[in-house]
Design brief:
about 230 residues, 4 strands, mainly alpha
Length: about 230
Amino acid sequence: MSDAVTSGVTTADPGAVPSDVAGAGVVVGDDGLARPVWASTDPLLREYYDTEWGLPVRDERGLFERLSLEAFQSGLSWATILRKRPAFRSAFSDFDPDVVARFDDEDRARLMADAGIVRNRLKVDATIRNARATLDLRADGGLVDFVWSFGPAETPRPRTMAEVPTTSPESLALSRALKAKGFTFVGPTTMHALMEAAGIVDTHLVDSHRRGSSGVWGDDGRPVPDGGPRAAGS
């Protein structure tokens, strides 16, 4: 890989990763597209970045899934969670909160014996509890409207990974509000990651080919007027 970085853009072969990750800008892959370091080499992460990460999630099941997986990711790599996602979906009934909310001790034992997922009892219990809290939140407008109401007035415009925030005033407020509603494993860092993944904020590097792709945020970091958000996976 070349060590040269010009205007935050590194030209690299797909099997290399800059040693200075924090200071790295985008990496131009063999397909000519610019991505951040974390999405530049692993095919699974690249596909996730190109087709899903940062696109708006505005359905309850989809947002509950992402909230749950972000909680399971705590202390682990996102690549680990992404590779286990099919098993997670199978184990947690496709993250249907109505079903997960009814999980009992037998289901807990089944989950703790499932090598396909992350077998952490606290996180398993949190997912079940959060499903029940999601159902309760319907009386206040539902999980989607609640979480999206914490979106910022502007979104960051990072050029390097060092400029990408890991928390924000909005993620701290969301964390506190969800805890007050009975959710667990929803710390401000985890909530910021959720907001990034679900399109509530846009932390794509400014030189990335995905910057502004959500339809929610413009390249300048401001909301798109009357911008109809694209659905994740579209």
